[in-house]
Amino acid sequence: MDIYRPYVLDTAITFETDVPTAGQMAERIDKALATHEWLVLEADDNVIGYAYAQQFNPRAAYLWSVETSVYLTQHRRGAGGGRMLYAELLHRLGERGFRRAFAGIAQPNEASNALHAAFGFHPAGHYQRVGWKLGAWHDVAWWQLDLLGPDDEVDPPRPIAT
User: CA 149 → CA 7, 94, 140, distances in Å?
Assistant: First the structure.
């Protein structure tokens, strides 16, 4: 909660306007862990960041596609933690057979754009003036990464190994 709260209240990085309760966050984590991934980064016995994947779209044909996100405590941004989380998240998703990863990035956000470009994501679309937050309209740039290359394998992604 402490990590996500400032993003909700002080930025347009997320389009949520109400901070989720601890129960709501627990539900999100459980849902992500049931089918995708939710990773945390700790330092000095404190959670300082997390990254997760969720179904890109609930329709069946999107089963192979995920939407990804990464969040760090404000004072830890730019120190490599997000890069470490994202590298592990994308690796796990590819190993399990997910084909495409998408990230919706509220604009402007040069740091997130650069992070995604560094991982090989490429721009896939741009929604103009799609979200109203903090007294202004914001665009969302969609970025896409092919996790496993262009082959046509259609086996469904594998469950999380326990």
Answer: 33, 10, 25
Which range of residues forms the domain containing residue 44?
5-146
Residue 154 domain flag: no
pTM score > 0.70 for this model? Answer: yes
Q: Is residue 34 in some structural domain?
A: yes
Whether 160 is in a domain gets the answer no
Q: Which residues contact 102 (CB under 8 A, 6 or more apart)?
A: 56, 65, 66, 67, 68, 124, 142, 143, 144, 145
How many domains, in total, are found in the chain? Answer: 1
CA 51 vs CA 79, 120, 150: distances in Å: 15, 17, 25
Query: Tens digit of pLDDT for each residue in 99-154?
Result: 999 999 999 999 999 999 999 999 999 999 999 999 999 999 999 999 987 666 67
Residue 162 lies in a domain: no
